[in-house]
Fold:
Amino acid sequence: MSKVSHQERIERELARLLKQRRESLGLSKVVTAQRAGLAVMTIFFVEELKRCPSINTLLRIAAALEVDLWQMLRDATSAAQHAKKS
Structure:
């Protein structure tokens, strides 16, 4: 079994938080992509950890979801640190 790095845990948490936010707003991937000016597949790839998005892409998704990316990164980092201790 491979060991998951701290960075990978943060990436997983961020993807989970973005998807959770999108769903809590009742938005589809299509609407989120339209709001962000991105391809639908980009939203899918980010949420499913298929690609490592640029900061620009993350900022656009965060704006579409009306959330502060930096706070979300802090939350993802905190959750990743907690998961490491579990």
